[in-house]
DNA sequence: TAAATTCACGAAACCGTTTTCGCTGAAAAT
DNA sequence: ATTTTCAGCGAAAACGGTTTCGTGAATTTA
């Protein structure tokens, strides 16, 4: 839509298009005086180069894509903030896509990226994603992919993750130390690697303490809130109910608290609760919530940093980059302070 | 980066480039049989058209920009979710930019949009923004602008907002009904229109109830957390302290709760608290928080819907669109249930 | 049967940049 | 004085689509 393009600029300056282009890019071929004139007139006419013409010619879009399952979750909000900060610093643009935990959407979105729209991709896979052809297709198309948070181990790409196994173990140890013997573990998808790792940490911590894991206490929730309420109510109502809960998913904490109130279960007296979460309000909840908190902002920043290095430096093996930024346990009242 | 472009496709099919292009767009000029062949081979070769070549020629990017002050806030996360949903439905791409409440950044970002990068803009202005030349420049450049949440009244653009004045009034009425007589009002920037409107509602509600507004109880906070802690501590420590607080900003609720705990102020007994907020955890806080909640998701969806209408239909006066979607008061324990 | 119309496709201009290559005149080297 | 170098710039070919316009054959109409 800009009525003034480089041609108009050139005409105004009595210069050729090529010269103007080079002047704007501060090319050594152009004299200082000419550059000065060009910049001056460009500013006067509010010249703004067409990014798509430039992208077409250079085969470079200065744009990256961020694909995440959702954004209501506070983890992804913070991660995106980290990503955007670095991108703005580097002069890149950020396209955001939500998959709503659907593999089909994820694939559909990624398939669109084989055409040069983006120079790189940051992705946290959907909970349904197990095959990775759509991701490898990008890698082989020379668009670097960096996983953050939810990675796929087998795929040859950079990964910025957190120590999910250790966190699961640590969370469980914490509950055990606080006297829990029957601990329930809540998850959403057991396809999700971060979940299986956390769960593995949970199981091993239990076993190491000679505690039994009841199958009823491995609880698979869904994406449907009503369904989850039903499931969780059932879990918390069963005789011989758990005395501790680890939620591997932030959004399950609301139903857990709500149902406990309904069932008149006291936290932490009757039930100790711990949640993997980035909620800024964790310590003003009722009771304040013990969390394993992921370094969302830093993970976003690191993921973006690695991606830009991959985009800008050729022959840099970004695929080998495998950063693990540890999560942190914040002990609060829901597990007895 | 895609080794296969429309030329390669055409060669494979023994057709001209133009014909292939038209076949892919389902043009009436092309026979059914040819279209079938083209689609078939295109799929076989994983042909993906270069979006920038297309954008360049059509002068249309199928991309919109969303410019918001931040994203850690739950309002904007939800709004973005609504926007992205509509965009995906319409086949548009969404660029996200954060201004960090800085006018300079906002201007810098918007100035980049006069060149066709985006077909439209959704913006919630920074708290520093009062002049609007950068926005009008876009409007006059034929890129439609839709404000959401934080609009600027004087600017001729579509606005999707909520009833800030009424909400401020209603919030105040609620506190008064619950027995408050000295109410403090917390804000961040008094340049922000939504804030001045809420505050006006607050003031009028007070006056209408013959209550005095103490200047000390109009509290301007900053973007610095430590600073805010200092300010709020001071406010809550003063003799003749307020018996009610209205926070017009979500992020101030954490310091308020924290400081109350430190000062051993009981909510709601000593102090009733109400917050403009979209926190999903409001009702499991300690105590559960009375909120004025904005319809973030719906506002995002509406804003996007209006924008796409503006983008797609010419001679549609989107500037006149002025939707007000009401916020809702959720009464919880922090104001006495 | 001749003329008009329709159908299906190809040729080529075009979108706005970037970049290569070539040209010119002046300075430097021989 | 002649050749070489070089600074500074212009011409033109890309980049990969879209779109206008033209064309020949097939079909319809007069």
Short recap of the structure:
The structure is a homodimer of 337-residue chains. Chain A has twelve helices and twelve strands. By secondary structure, chain A is α/β, with parallel strands linked by helices.
Question: Which helices and strands occur, and which strands form pairs?
Answer:
The structure is a homodimer of 337-residue chains.
Chain A: H1 6-13, H2 17-24, H3 32-44, H4 51-58, E1 63-68, H5 74-90, E2 93-98, H6 103-111, E3 120-123, H7 133-140, E4 145-148, E5 158-161, H8 164-177, E6 183-187, H9 193-208, E7 218-220, H10 225-237, E8 244-247, H11 253-262, E9 272-276, E10 290-293, H12 296-312, E11 322-324, E12 328-330
Parallel strand pairs in A: 1-2, 1-3, 3-4, 4-5, 5-11, 6-7, 6-8, 8-9, 9-10
Antiparallel strand pairs in A: 10-12
Chain B binds a DNA duplex (30 and 30 nucleotides) through helix 2 and helix 4.
Properties at a glance:
12 helices, Rossmann fold, DNA-binding, 12 strands, 6-stranded parallel sheet, homodimer
Q: If you had to describe this structure to a student in words, what would you say it looks like?
A:
Two copies of one chain form a homodimer. Chain A is an alpha/beta fold and 337 residues long. Chain A has three domains: 6-49, no CATH class; 61-162 and 296-326, Response regulator (Rossmann fold), CATH 3.40.50.2300; 164-293, Response regulator (Rossmann fold), CATH 3.40.50.2300. Chain A has twelve helices and twelve strands. Chain A has helices spanning 6-13, 17-24, 32-44, 51-58, 74-90, 103-111, 133-140, 164-177, 193-208, 225-237, 253-262, 296-312, and strands at 63-68, 93-98, 120-123, 145-148, 158-161, 183-187, 218-220, 244-247, 272-276, 290-293, 322-324, 328-330. A six-stranded parallel β-sheet of chain A has the order 2-1-3-4-5-11, with helices on both faces. Chain A has a six-stranded mixed β-sheet with strand order 7-6-8-9-10-12, with helices on both faces. In chain A, α9 (193-208) links the parallel β6 and β7 (218-220). The longest helix of chain A is centred in the N-terminal third of the chain and has 17 residues, at 74-90. The radius of gyration of chain A is 25 Å and the shape is elongated. The model of chain A has no long low-confidence stretch (mean pLDDT 94). The structure holds a DNA duplex (30 and 30 nucleotides).
């Amino acid at each position: 839509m800009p009525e003034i393009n480089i041609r108009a600029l050139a005409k105004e300056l009595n210069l050729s298009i090529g010269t103007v282009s080079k002047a704007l890019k501060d090319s050594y071929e152009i004299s200082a005086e000419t550059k000065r004139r060009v910049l001056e007139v460009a500013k006067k006419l509010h010249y703004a180069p067409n990014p798509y013409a430039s992208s077409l010619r250079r085969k470079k879009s200065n744009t990256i894509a961020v694909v995440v399952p959702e954004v209501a979750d506070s983890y992804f909000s913070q991660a995106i903030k980290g990503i955007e900060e670095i991108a703005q610093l580097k002069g890149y643009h950020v396209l955001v896509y939500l998959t709503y935990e659907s593999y089909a959407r994820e694939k559909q979105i990624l398939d669109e990226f084989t055409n040069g729209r983006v120079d790189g991709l940051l992705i946290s896979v959907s909970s349904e994603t197990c095959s990775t052809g759509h991701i490898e297709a990008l890698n082989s198309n020379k668009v670097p992919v960096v996983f953050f948070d939810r990675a796929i181990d087998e795929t040859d790409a950079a990964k910025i993750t957190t120590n999910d196994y250790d966190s699961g173990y640590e969370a469980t140890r914490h509950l055990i130390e606080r006297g829990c013997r029957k601990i329930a573990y809540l998850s959403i998808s057991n396809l999700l690697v971060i979940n299986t790792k956390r769960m593995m940490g949970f199981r091993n911590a239990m076993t190491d303490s000679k505690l039994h894991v009841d199958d009823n206490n491995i609880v698979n929730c869904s994406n449907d809130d009503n369904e989850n309420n039903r499931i969780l109510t059932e879990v918390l109502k069963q005789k011989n109910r758990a005395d501790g809960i680890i939620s591997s998913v932030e959004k399950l904490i609301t139903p857990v608290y709500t149902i406990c109130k309904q069932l008149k279960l006291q936290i932490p007296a009757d039930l100790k609760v711990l949640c993997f979460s980035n909620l800024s309000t964790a310590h003003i909840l009722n009771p304040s919530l013990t969390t394993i908190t992921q370094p969302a902002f830093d993970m976003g920043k690191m993921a973006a940093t690695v991606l830009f290095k991959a985009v800008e430096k050729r022959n840099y093996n970004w695929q080998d980059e495998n950063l693990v930024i540890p999560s942190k346990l914040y002990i609060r009242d829901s597990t007895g302070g």
